[in-house]
Amino acid sequence: MPTADITTEFRTFPKTWGAEYVAAGEVRFRLWAPGQKEVQLRLNGEDTPMTASRDGWFEILATGVEPGAEYQFVLDDGLAIADPASRAQNGDVHGPSLVIDPTDYPWKQTAWAGRPWEEAVIYELHIGTFTADGTFRSAIERLPYLAKLGITAVEVMPIAQFGGNRGWGYDGVLLYAPHSAYGPPEDFKAFVDAAHEHGLMVLLDVVYNHFGPDGNYLPACAPEFFHPDTPTPWGAAIAYDKPAVRSFFIENALYWLEEFNLDGLRFDAVDQIRDDSEKHFLIEVAEKIRAENPGRHIHLTTEDNRNITSLHERGEDGAVPHHTGEWNDDFHNVIHVIATRETDAYYKDFAKDPHTHLARVLAEGFAHQGEVAASTGKKRGAKSTHQPPTTFVDFIQNHDQVGNRALGERLLTLAGEDRVKALMTVLLLSPHIPLLFMGEEFGEDRPFLFFTDFHGDLAKIVREGRRKEFAGHAGFRDGEGDTSDIPDPNAKKTFDACKLDWEKLETETGRNWTDFVRHLLALRQEQIVPLLGEARGHAGKVLSVEGGTIAVSWKLGRATLSMAANLSDTATSRPKLEGSIIHQTNDTGDGNLPPWSVLVTIAEGKN
């Protein structure tokens, strides 16, 4: 693997916001608070006025400050708040922040520089439910298992400090502070260090489209941080045209990558990042990340329901100037329709000829490339055929697609083993980048529900809003079901029900599943990954779609990878594929593809 030249102090850089050591024992504290006339620093229980400078900044240099010292900012009205750029909290979002020395952690894997993107097999996990203890330290214990399975990248759902102890992480309010219920910053660094020891990349999900409703004091400090007349689904849009705001987020992205030695970021719901600047925030942050991290494999992915391609364009020889990949909801949505026959909500867009949609997704990336979507009546997407297949991150499950169901059912519960194994085979043996959601590799059937830890009126709003959301969905309309059966997101038992059942690994079912997944991932690593470095645009081609059977091929350098999949309940004629068979679900010997079976071949080209 490649190595990088890393100094003994590792990688740190000065920040615009927050508490920053500038010399031994000397810390500069800075806060952008144009909405305040005066701000005081409360350090170890003592208040000291901060100096106001231009453009709404307040700062102060304090001496004799030890790592772990508690501090808060005190506003005009006497309210003491956490530092919006807090690196750690002593307790929850309303408590004091802690001064952190980022050079304190004794990194072991200092030569790690990542892995190429084409090697990525991503495993999405939620720290709080991944293990019984729900901490960074306990998660370390499972890393050898993931590496042995064939996983090469762990993607951690958001860990920025949010209100309460339990939550998905998408309501973070202190975006620089690892959630204290999971452990202190050094524990997350230990998790990353251990992952690298086992050859695993670590990607982090970051949320730059909104702040959570509990503990966000930025509107009091700086009303200009938001655009009140520009709404998003979660409140006013963030004002990315303001330099102080822009620096907050750009430095946050660099902070996670450099101080925690992460291998990449996943940007949540970027369609809700509103920015009319000459250079869009998402382009600028990608360019800054690339410039600040030469010699490292840094992978940036986006979630975006618009099906756009502009963020992921490739340079010469397949180089990535901005973002590496796009979470491909089209793949999941059409797979879900084929497996479950559900056609509610956004699944409506894939109800007609789902197998045709799937073939297009596999060959070209998106199913919708500028066509009118049935669910909205509006055009959606852009042409994606020119992008290499490794641009698209595919999944048959993820936290959203499971957890946003009323009862949090996994696909195995909805569709059964035969169907899910066939779909898993398509996922893991296509040239797209595969993502697994924690537990699906051992056949987990425990739900992953939406859970929070709010209290009072906010808890009531979330509980009632959740039930109202599903009132018109299948199973809860026309007298079919009672929405009061939908688990209360704030109840601890809802959270506990989502913890993985690791004992299932020791059962026959668990072993059967992990053997199945391990075999496919070994096959991918040996036969397919070596071809992906030469993958370019216009690689895919739909060979045929006959009823429930699809056939697709991809030109990957000199080789051709082909796949035929019968995703139906009846046997069909086997399409003719070029090359040698590298995988076949089972061979009936009669020239047919059995129900829910997959055939994969590779044809080597001539030099």
From TrEMBL:
Q: Where is it predominantly found?
A: cytoplasm
Enzyme Commission (EC) number: 3.2.1.141
Enumerate the catalysed reactions: hydrolysis of (1->4)-alpha-D-glucosidic linkage in 4-alpha-D-[(1->4)-alpha-D-glucanosyl]n trehalose to yield trehalose and (1->4)-alpha-D-glucan
Give the pathway annotation: Glycan biosynthesis; trehalose biosynthesis
Q: Where in the cell is it found?
A: Cytoplasm
Which EC class, in a word? hydrolase
Q: What is this protein called?
A: Malto-oligosyltrehalose trehalohydrolase
The UniProt keyword set, sorted, is: Carbohydrate metabolism, Cytoplasm, Glycosidase, Hydrolase
| Transmembrane residue ranges | none
Identify the residues that the record assigns to the Glycosyl hydrolase family 13 catalytic domain, covering every copy.
124-477
Q: What is the lineage of its organism?
A: Bacteria, Pseudomonadati, Pseudomonadota, Alphaproteobacteria, Hyphomicrobiales
Q: Does the keyword Lyase apply?
A: no
What is the originating organism of this protein?
A: Neorhizobium huautlense
- Asked if the record carries the keyword Cytoplasm, the reply is yes
Pfam families from the UniProt entry: Alpha-amylase, DUF3459
**What family is this?**
Belongs to the glycosyl hydrolase 13 family.
